[in-house]
């Protein structure tokens, strides 16, 4: 599907629909009059097949307790196998009401208060929250921006694990923000270090469906022919890929039977919620019918990225745009023409944009902002125009 067709068919106005992204600007940013290009959801309707499946269920009219049928697992396994070569068995799977919920469950289930947990900033800020909220010890191995490509210093990663006696690593793969798709070589180096120091790994792979060009996603349990699968707690979802996050459904995959037993034991005591019927119906329909839609969306994202990159390169040579190997959430580095502490005033006060600030993903990244490109091109154009116009006024 070409870009214009996708946009014409699926663009939808979200203001005044109780949208966190559009209708909580005053509360989150102190200014209701901003153009929102922050939080990771979209201005696009879900694939037709999802809307049809949900409509059918809604029209049925009875919303009693329900279970997740075997066909759901067949569909999910097909998606994982056809896209990533990962044949997921039903018995390894557990439903979750969201990826972030699963992070809290894992942390409670597999670690104790005071245990050290490592993450690799700049990284999705709920990773910091789950560690702090549950009184674990936060350990970081900051990534380095090598000319727009964020890379992990593996020596630093190992050193931080060793000196803090780290018990758990939260891997974000593909990585949000910064748009990195980890290569299998990089993943193997990380996982080998985790194995050497007996560190358990949560693999948050919610962005698995967004990779571009030669960059391919490798599910962590497949790395090195499955060598590390026994220490991996995988969680992914269709929610980022198909704009379903409000339906609260995600997939946990645990291959290791003993870790699964521990999880079930924990869940038996602490996770007593039923399933959200609409969440798993939408997910199944998305995996069954959403392929063409997803390809169309990815073309929109790449075109938006191309616009962002070329316009900024032409008008503001001091801005660096990170490479987009995956996700739809690139960072741009504004430190070439602004002091880090002035970025907020420029972006929010002058350009009137709501973005995710670099420092939300790690102290060292003040001066960067993260933009959400899964949107109508007119919003990306408007955001870039405002940045360029305000930049010219500064000069
Ligand atoms: C890396 C990552 N994990 C988890 C989430 C949120 O997942 P959920 O809405 O299922 O809690 C996001 C949303 O942007 C994300 O980027």
TrEMBL record:
Top EC class of this enzyme: lyase
Cofactor needs: pyridoxal 5'-phosphate
Entry keyword annotation includes Transferase: yes
Membrane spanning residue stretches: none
Origin superkingdom: Bacteria
Enzyme Commission number, as recorded: 4.4.1.13
Domain Aminotransferase class I/classII large intervals: 96-387
InterPro entries listed in its UniProt record: Aminotransferase_I/II_large, C-S_lyase_PatB-like, Class-II_PLP-Dep_Aminotrans, PyrdxlP-dep_Trfase, PyrdxlP-dep_Trfase_major, PyrdxlP-dep_Trfase_small
SUPFAM superfamilies named in the record: PLP-dependent transferases (SSF53383)
Coiled coil: none
NCBIfam families: C_S_lyase_PatB
Annotated family: Belongs to the class-II pyridoxal-phosphate-dependent aminotransferase family. MalY/PatB cystathionine beta-lyase subfamily.
Name under which the protein is recorded: cysteine-S-conjugate beta-lyase
Natural source organism: Salinicoccus cyprini
């Amino acid at each position: 599907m070409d870009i214009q067709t996708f946009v014409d068919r699926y663009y939808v106005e979200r203001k005044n629909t109780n949208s966190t992204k559009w209708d909580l600007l005053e509360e989150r940013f102190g200014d209701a009059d901003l153009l929102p290009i922050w939080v990771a959801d979209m201005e696009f309707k879900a694939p037709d097949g999802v809307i049809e499946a949900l409509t059918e269920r809604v029209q049925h009219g009875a919303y009693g307790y329900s279970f997740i049928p075997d066909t759901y697992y067949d569909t999910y396994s097909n998606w994982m196998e056809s896209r990533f070569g990962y044949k997921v068995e039903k018995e390894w799977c557990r439903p979750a009401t969201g990826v972030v919920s699963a992070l809290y469950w894992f942390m409670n289930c597999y670690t104790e208060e005071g245990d050290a947990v490592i993450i690799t900033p700049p990284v999705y800020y709920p990773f910091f929250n789950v560690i702090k909220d549950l009184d674990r010890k936060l350990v970081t191995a900051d990534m380095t921006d090598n000319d727009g490509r964020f890379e992990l210093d593996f020596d630093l990663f190992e050193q931080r694990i060793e000196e803090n006696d780290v018990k758990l690593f939260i891997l974000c793969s593909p990585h949000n923000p910064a748009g990195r798709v980890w290569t299998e070589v990089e993943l193997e180096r990380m996982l080998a270090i985790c194995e050497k120091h007996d560190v358990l790994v949560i693999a948050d792979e919610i962005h698995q469906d967004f990779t571009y060009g030669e960059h391919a996603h490798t599910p962590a349990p497949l790395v090195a022919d499955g060598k590390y699968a026994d220490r991996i707690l995988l969680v992914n979802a269709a929610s980022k890929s198909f704009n379903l996050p409000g339906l609260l459904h995600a997939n946990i995959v645990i291959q290791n039977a003993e870790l699964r037993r521990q999880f079930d034991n924990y869940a038996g005591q602490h996770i007593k919620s039923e399933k959200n019927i609409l969440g798993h119906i939408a997910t199944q329909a998305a995996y069954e019918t959403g392929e063409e839609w997803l390809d169309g969306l990815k073309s929109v994202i790449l075109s938006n990225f191309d616009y962002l990159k070329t316009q900024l390169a032409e008008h503001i040579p001091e801005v660096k745009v990170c490479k987009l190997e995956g996700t739809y959430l690139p960072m741009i580095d504004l430190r070439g023409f602004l002091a880090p502490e002035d970025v907020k005033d420029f972006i929010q006060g002058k350009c009137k944009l709501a973005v995710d600030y670099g420092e939300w993903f790690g102290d060292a990244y003040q001066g960067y902002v993260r933009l959400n490109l899964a949107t109508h091109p007119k919003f990306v154009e408007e955001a870039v125009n405002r940045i360029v116009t305000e930049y010219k006024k500064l000069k």
